[in-house]
Design goal:
single chain; alpha+beta; Aminopeptidase; ten-stranded mixed beta sheet; about 30% strand
């Protein structure tokens, strides 16, 4: 998770992130996302600074993530972190970008562009055939920036939240995933997307949040977790329904993890099923890619990274 340190003519230094940066980065994650959401009248993706710090800590401490931090070096004695970006390198074929955040006081100064270029160059240096991200549809500036940097729009995505749906799907059962399920799940993901997400799935199994769907004694779907930061795939919509409905409300959890689960909006059957089961639409996102992309050959739910 290293990169060289560079300083621009404008006094902006880009360097690798370290765990000691988590507090400063987390605060910026909270403030940056809050400002743009408040401006457009949408719920905050990271409601408190502590949540932002927890997110930053996870990305900075988890193997397989590359990080870059932007520092304002104009004050030689007291440099200040003004932004950061991350790259999920746990897949061998697809690199997932984000979250990228800039201190609201330092926006519109080209910091975001430099952080994005750094990440794109990193992915290309590692020979990734695909780079992907999800962009908040109400944030026009980021859509324009990513398009100018070479990203293409692929899919509208809906973030949905609410009390977990408790329903049964005939013929399908759901259980927790184990490491013995990895190859079956990877084959499933490759059949649907043309690539697997082995590293992410292994992490989720260790965390105890990954699940598989069983139909006709075979694994026909899996989820790395029913949260904003996790993905799911299935051969059919019934597989996704079974996974979504496997989450239970408890005394401490009465919603899906983070801002919610992510559903491709064009999958009308799943989208409508979620709405009919009283999940609410939080906001829309846009899946954007550089390089390799295959139209999915089955049902899926992306993570906030891709």
């Amino acid at each position: 998770m290293t990169t060289s340190t560079t300083t621009t003519e404008q006094g902006l230094r880009l360097r690798p992130g370290v765990i000691g940066d988590a507090k400063d980065i987390g605060k910026i994650i909270f403030e940056a996302f809050s400002e743009i959401a408040d401006k457009h009248g949408f719920p905050r993706e990271f409601p408190t600074a502590d949540i932002g710090i927890n997110v930053a800590t996870f990305f900075l401490s988890t193997p397989g993530f590359y990080s870059v931090v932007a520092e304002d070096m104009k004050k030689q004695i007291d440099s200040k972190i003004v932004g950061s970006n991350f790259l999920d390198e746990r897949s061998s074929l697809v690199a997932g970008v984000g979250p990228i955040t800039i201190d609201p006081k330092s926006q519109d100064k080209g910091v975001g562009r430099k952080l994005m270029i750094n990440i794109i160059e990193r992915a290309k240096s590692k020979n990734y055939p695909a780079i992907r991200l999800l962009q908040a549809a109400y944030h026009n500036r980021s859509l324009a920036l990513y398009t100018n940097l070479g990203f293409e729009v692929r899919e509208p995505i809906s973030a949905l939240q609410g009390k977990p749906i408790e329903a049964s799907v005939p013929g399908r059962s759901v259980r927790m995933a184990t490491e013995a399920d990895l190859e079956s799940c990877n084959q499933l993901c490759r059949a649907i997307h043309g690539h697997d997400r082995n590293g992410e799935l292994k992490d989720s199994i260790k965390q105890g949040i990954a699940k598989v769907v069983i139909y006709d004694n075979k694994i026909t779907g899996y989820t790395s977790g029913l949260t904003y930061f996790n993905h799911s795939v299935g051969f059919s919509n019934d597989d996704l329904k079974a996974l979504i409905a496997s989450e239970s409300s408890t005394s401490t959890t009465d919603s899906y993890g983070g801002p919610g689960i992510l559903i491709p909006t064009r999958n009308t059957e799943i989208f409508r099923w979620c709405l009919n089961n009283k999940l609410r639409l939080v906001h829309q996102l846009t899946l954007m890619t550089i390089g390799m992309y295959n139209d999915p050959a089955g049902s899926y739910m992306p993570s906030i990274l891709y």
